[in-house]
Amino acid sequence: MPRVALVTYDPRPEPSKDQDLPLLLRALVEAGVEADLVFWDDAGVDWASYDLAVIRSTWDYSWRAAEFAAWTERCAKATRLANPVDVVRWNADKRYLGDLAEAGVPVVPTRYLAPAAADTGSLLPTDHEYVIKPTSGAGARYAARYTPDQHDTAVRHLARMHEEGLTAMVQPYVKAIDTGGERALQFFAGRLLHASRKRAVLAPGTAFDADKVAHPGLEPWTPTTAELDVAQRALAAVPGAPELLYARVDLVEGEDGEPRVMELELVEPNLFLHLHPTSTPTVAAAILAAATAAAATA
Fold first, then answer.
1. Strands 3-8 and 34-39, how do they pair?
2. Which of 252, 293, 242 is nearest to 110 (CA)?
3. How far is CA 94 from CA 16, 39, 43, 60, 243, in A?
4. What distance, in Å, lies between the first and last C-alpha atoms of the chain?
5. How far apart are CA 30 and CA 27, in angstroms?
6. What is the enclosing helix (H) or strand (E) of 39?
7. Nearest alpha-carbon partner for 279 in 168, 218, 198, 195
8. Residue 278 pLDDT > 90, yes or no?
9. Alpha-carbon distance 201 to 207, whole Å?
10. CA of 125: how far to CAs of 78, 144, 148, 260, 295, in Å?
11. Distances (CA, A) of 143 to 31, 153, 298
C-alpha cells in the first residue's frame, strides 16, 4: 500500500479553508492509499516514510517564502515531491509571467517594481485603471486596484510592500473580469480535469491590506477552444518540460476578447473538488498511480 502525504498548513486557531482535503483523503483511502494530512512545517514529520508528498494547501507559504523554499528542498531529497521542487521554486515567484511572455504565451502585461527601484511612483499608470500586488502572494494578499487619481494611495501601497522586501507587480486592470469573470482550468496528470469561473476579487476602493474573498461567485465553466489552447501553451512553456501532477491556469479576456494568462498555479492551487465532486476519483487515481510509480523506483 503506497503512503502519501497530503501537505497542508496549520491554520490554528481558525479551521482550515481547504474544502478539498476531506474529500480527497476519503477518496484516497477508498482507492487503497495510506494517506495522511501533514503540516509542511511540522519538524517531527519523517518525509522519507512517504512514497509521495503532494503539496495541496500550504496557503501560508507566501508569508514565509524562504522557509518554505528550504522545506521543499529537504522534502524533495527525502521523497518524491509533487510538483517537483524546481517547478515550485520557479512558480512561487510571479515573475514567471515574464518567462511565459518570452515564450510567446499571451499573458496580462506586467511591470515589476523591486524594493531597490528608484522613484517607483513615477512608473505607475496615469491613463488607465491598474492593479498592484506582490510577486509572492496568495488569496489576493496585498492586492488592490487603483484609478490614476488614486496615485498617492497606490504609492503608499508600494512603500508598504517594499518595506517588507516584496517586489510589486503592476498590471492593467482587465475590465472583462467585471463582466465575464476569470476562468480557472484545472489539469491533473496532464489532462484537463475541469474548469471553473469566478467573479471579480478586487472591488474598487478595497484597501490592499483588507481581507478578500479569493474565489467569489465560483461556478462550473466549460472552457472554449481558445482557452484550452492558451492553457496548454502555458503548460508547455514551463522550463524543462517537467512532469506535472497538477496545474491550474487562470485566464481572463484581454481587450481583444482573446484569453490571456493571469496566473499559472503550480504550487498549491485550490482544486475546487467541492464544486466538481465527480473529479475526485480521477484525482485520487492519479495520485495513486504517481505514488505507486515512485515506490517502484525508490
1. parallel
2. 252
3. 25, 24, 28, 16, 20
4. 14
5. 5
6. strand 34-39
7. 195
8. yes
9. 12
10. 47, 14, 7, 20, 52
11. 40, 13, 42
pTM of the model: 0.94
DSSP letter for 256, please: T
Q: Which three cell numbers stand for residue 20?
A: 478539498
For the stretch 131-176, pLDDT in tens is: 999 998 776 778 999 999 999 999 999 999 999 889 999 999 999 9
Amino acid at 60: D
Contact 65, 240 (CB under 8 A): no
- Using DSSP, how many helices (H) and how many strands (E) does the chain show? 8, 13
Residues in the chain: 298
Per-residue model confidence (pLDDT) at position 206: 82
Q: How far apart are CA 246 and CA 24, in angstroms?
A: 14
Nearest to 263 by CA among 122, 126, 143, 124: 143
